[in-house]
Amino acid sequence: MEIRWLGTAGFDMRTCDSRFLIDPYVSRNPQAEPVQPLTPADLAGADRIFVSHGHFDHLMDLPEILEQDPEKPSLVFCSSTAADILEKRGVSPSRIYRVTQNSIGIRFAYVSARACFGRHIRFDLPLMAATLARINIRFFHILPLFTGYPCGQVLSWRFFLEGKTIQHLGSSGAASEELANMDPPDILMLSLQGHSHICRIAAAHVRRLKPQTVIVHHHDNFYPPISRTVDIAPFVEQVNQECPHTRVIVPQMNTPITICT
Questions:
Q1: CB-CB contact of 191 with 210 (8 Å)
Q2: Smallest Cα–Cα separation from 3: which of 133, 159, 176?
Q3: Distance CA 145, CA 165 (A)
Q4: Structure letter (DSSP) for residue 33
Q5: How far, CA to CA in Å, does 175 sit from each of 63, 122, 134, 164?
Q6: Which CATH code for domain 2-258?
Q7: Do residues 38 and 12 make contact, with C-beta atoms less than 8 angstroms apart?
Q8: What sign has the CA pseudo-torsion 124, 125, 129, 130?
Q9: What is the pLDDT of residues 140-173, one digit of tens each?
Q10: For the chain, first and last CA: distance in Å?
Q11: What DSSP state is assigned to residue 221?
Q12: Beta partners for 108?
């Protein structure tokens, strides 16, 4: 199994002869950190694409990715809201699977996937105030990124491959009862963005789910001035203290992570 973090909540997953993408978004903007040399065209050819929700930093690049490889029509799995956005931007409905049922299962090649309804993290007032202060007079220029890409139903994706379970959270808004109903995954892909106390919230997720490995994501400064780099050191320290048997991986963009089975 090979995992590449693409920045934000995006991952490029490879196993045996199969390849799938999760929330692939690489276009960013010139001020983003770290710099992403890949373009949407570089992500063509995946067997399947899984989307957690409709925000621009999870969905915007999909039309261009899909355009690159009409001979191998990747199928996108997403909510109805995300599907509507994609269709408005020219993606054929035949390439979209609308996930409308909770806990629906999908199987392809050597991979099984399950989509469970989740929640987006609720932006808190201090974070929103700080973000608006950074945006300032650019508000009306950036506004279409919010209005054109509504969140819709959030999907938490669980993958089963090579004897491992991988839980991808595109946003860390899951309530305690949702986490209580999740089986502990081997690998938890955990978003650290969207709240002033995101490190504390994410550490609580780890305490409840007790994964063997955590791969952090979405902590990067993907689209200034909307975003900021999140200091994840408090999260790593808290997990090391409270969950010493959980390994925390802070990935480098585009650098493969090999998970031994």
A1: no
A2: 159
A3: 33
A4: B
A5: 32, 11, 30, 24
A6: 3.60.15.10
A7: no
A8: negative
A9: 999 999 999 999 999 999 999 989 999 999 999 9
A10: 8
A11: B
A12: 111
Q: Residues 53, 64: contact at Cβ < 8 Å?
A: no
Is the pTM higher than 0.90? The answer reads: yes
**Spans in the chain with pLDDT lower than 70:** 260-261
Domain ranges in the chain? 2-258
β-sheet bridge partners, residue 11: 5, 22
Four-residue CA torsion sign, 109, 111, 116, 119: negative
SS3 call for 81 = helix
Predicted local confidence at residue 124, as pLDDT? 96
Cα 10 to Cα 78: distance, rounded to the nearest angstrom: 14
Among 198, 154, 165, 178, residue whose Cα is nearest residue 59: 154
CB neighbour list of residue 78: distance below 8 Å, 6 or more residues apart: 50, 51, 54, 59, 86, 96, 97, 98, 99, 155
Could you tell me which residues come within 8 angstroms of residue 107 by beta carbon, excluding any fewer than 6 positions away? 113
Identify the sign of the CA torsion 199, 200, 204, 207. positive
| Per-residue pLDDT tens over the stretch 228-249 | 999 999 999 999 999 999 999 9
CA 49 to chain centre: 11
What is the predicted pLDDT for the residue at 179?
87
Q: What is the pLDDT of residue 261?
A: 52
Number of helices (H) and strands (E) in the chain: give both, helices first. 8, 14
In sequence order, what DSSP letters do the residues of 189-200 get, joined into one string?
Answer: EEE--SSTTHHH
